[in-house]
Write a structure and sequence with these properties.
The complex is a heterodimer of chains A (115) and B (216). Chain A has four helices and three strands. Chain A is α+β, with helices and mostly antiparallel strands. Chain A has a single domain, classed as Orthogonal Bundle (Arc Repressor Mutant, subunit A). Chain B starts with a helix and ends in an 8-residue tail after the last helix. Chain B is built from nine helices and two strands. Helices cover 63% and strands 3% of the residues of chain B. In chain B, a hairpin with a 5-residue loop joins β1 and β2. Classes of the chains: A alpha+beta (115), B mainly alpha (216). At the A-B interface, α2 and α3 of A face α2 and α4 of B.
């Protein structure tokens, strides 16, 4: 039961932080969905079902954190490219600050005990 | 001609569309289109596509139900409520009791009140209400009334009084056995008793297993 709760907590943390990982991937360049998913999947443990990225992208677009443009592709049908907006950029920056503090605070307690 | 991989993809996307049914149309369209694009990109990247490759692509995407659950959470949409067994209120209980035995307490009127409760309740659909009304008017009151009347007339079940030429009612002598009308009468009364019991049982069953049309 404790293990189940821990799994659920980790799943929630992953879900909550995933959107900032997506925003971070868009800082330097615009990307299309498949490309984003491939980059996220390279890091183990971040995405369990790749398909869940798409509802997230849709939500980010509706919240104005990303914007999209269709571009022709050389290898197939046009692709929808995602680009960070100003609002997206400041949301990412704000999260970064908080996350750094949070991570350090948790590590301060957890790592010392474990070590 | 569509290949097996094509059919797998088609089935996956259809399944996804169904799972996303409670999302607003434009969001559902967007997600399904993007995932269809993802699958096309992944397939285009394969040198020689095998059925196993396509199955792996779909598996990495995840179960459509999981994607839909995630999407509902992202868009803050309430998950579809699990079908709860309907909790019958006093209207339903009164309807069932009065339809069955109301006619015994208050002949005709007791049953009619039951009918009113039956039609007022929104637990049943029109079909069920018609069944409840027609089988059998009066509930068990009617056959029991017949039974009492038949016994009270002294002739016993199935004995028919015959009106003579002079206009007088002459009770027919009833043989103890071998009279086919006797059996017919008993069978008819039993059937008339059983049908309302069965109807009530059916209506009670429908309370627990409600037809989709009746749910608010």
């Amino acid at each position: 039961m404790v293990a189940g709760k821990q799994d659920a907590l980790l799943a929630q943390m992953r879900k909550g932080t995933l959107q900032y990982c997506v925003l971070a991937l868009l800082v330097d360049e615009e990307r299309y969905g498949f490309d984003l998913v491939r980059s996220l999947a390279e890091t183990d443990g971040m995405v369990t079902s790749e398909g869940t990225i798409y509802p997230l992208l849709s939500r980010l677009r509706r919240d104005g954190l990303v914007e999209t443009t269709w571009r022709e592709s050389t290898s197939g049908p046009p692709r929808r490219y995602y680009r960070l907006t100003k609002a997206g950029r400041s949301a990412l920056d704000a999260f970064n600050d908080e996350w750094g503090r949070f991570r350090d605070a948790v590590n301060h307690f957890v790592e010392r005990k474990a070590g | 001609m569509s290949t097996t991989p094509d059919r797998l993809v088609e089935r996956y996307l259809k399944h996804l569309e169904v799972e996303l049914d409670d999302l607003p149309r434009d969001r559902r369209r967007e997600i399904v289109d993007e995932i269809a694009g993802h699958i096309a990109e992944a397939r285009a990247g394969l040198e020689y596509e095998t059925e196993a490759d396509v199955r792996n692509i779909l598996e990495s995407l995840g179960d459509p139900a999981d994607i839909a659950a995630d999407a509902r959470e992202r868009f803050e949409i309430e998950p579809p409520a699990p079908a709860e067994p309907f909790k019958p209120g006093w209207t339903e209980i009164a309807a069932l009791v009065l339809l069955l035995v109301g006619g015994l307490v208050l002949p005709v009127i007791g049953w009619m009140i039951g009918v009113i409760f039956l039609w007022v309740s929104n637990a049943w659909n029109v079909r069920d209400k018609i069944i409840g009304t027609l089988f059998v008017p009066g509930g068990v009151g009617l056959p029991l009334f017949f039974l009492l009347f038949a016994l009270g007339s002294g002739g016993g079940i199935g004995c028919v009084d015959v009106i003579s030429d002079s206009g007088q009612t002459v009770p027919q002598a009833c043989p103890d056995s071998g009279d086919s009308t006797n059996y017919f009468g008993i069978a008819a009364v039993i059937a008339l008793l059983l049908i309302p019991v069965m109807t009530t049982a059916y209506l009670a069953y429908r309370l627990r297993h409600r037809p989709a049309a009746a749910t608010a």
